[in-house]
Amino acid sequence: MSQTPFVASTVSWCLAILPIWALQSSLSTTHLGPSDPRVPGQEASQPAPNLMPLRISGIQLDSVKPIVSFTLENTGSKAVTAWEIQIYIGKEMSGVGMDGYRSLAGLSRQPQHILPGATLDVTAPLPSGVSSSSSKPTIVPAGAIFEDKSFVGDARWAEYVFNTRKAELLAWTQVVDELEKLQRVPILNMEAVDIAVSHFDLKPRDGADIVRNVARTNLSLVSGDLTGNPAKAAIRLNTLLKRARDSRAAAAAHVR
Q1: Boundary-marking domain end, from 89, 123, 153
Q2: 64 in helix, strand or coil?
Q3: H-only helix segments in 19-106
Q4: Residue 159 domain-assigned?
Q5: SS3 for 151?
Q6: Residue at 12 is within a domain
Q7: Of 39, 78, 234, 241, which one has the fewest beta carbons inside 10 Å?
Q8: Hey, which bits of 76-147 come out as E strands?
Q9: Are residues 69 and 181 in the same domain?
């Protein structure tokens, strides 16, 4: 059973709020960043093969671009909601991963989770500085988080994913609160929408800042409706509120 291909990116976010992380490093140095929770000088320990229910196949290098394509298969009995892969060429290493809990909840157009027995086609960048003409890389599954919130692999990576989910839960809770306040306004108006937007601006940046950015964008659409079609603004607000409640419920179901 195959799922829609997934194209990984080192810097990539989408309106579906699907966290993507990637890292570029050599085997001797780990570069920290918002997408790499590891500590300096330590590579992720590899889980025992019989514990990791992810299998790599069909590795293909692009003939022009420094990217690699492969198929990721879930050989286990539980749905994988988040995964991490490491790509090795010589002394260079890069990594890519995806948290697909929203996908499992049906909140994403592109599937990022992997059901038992299913596969996911992945395209990811090669390690920094490696050309497309290099030898075929070694690709190793480094971590997986399951639907029941258990995990296998790098504990630091798993902690990072769960912390990001917690931040998203708090952000979605705020979005729901602000939209419910707007819904209670007797006559929806620009001033009330502007106040809601300003409340998102007051929050510090964190792993879920993308949630608030999307909320601002969506509220700007409500403002645009108010100038020309107030009835449409109310309908859009109700739709946004339902989606925000669904997103909050999905995040709540996948935190530890």
Answers
A1: 153
A2: coil
A3: 101-104
A4: no
A5: strand
A6: yes
A7: 39
A8: 80-89, 92-99, 119-125, 138-146
A9: no
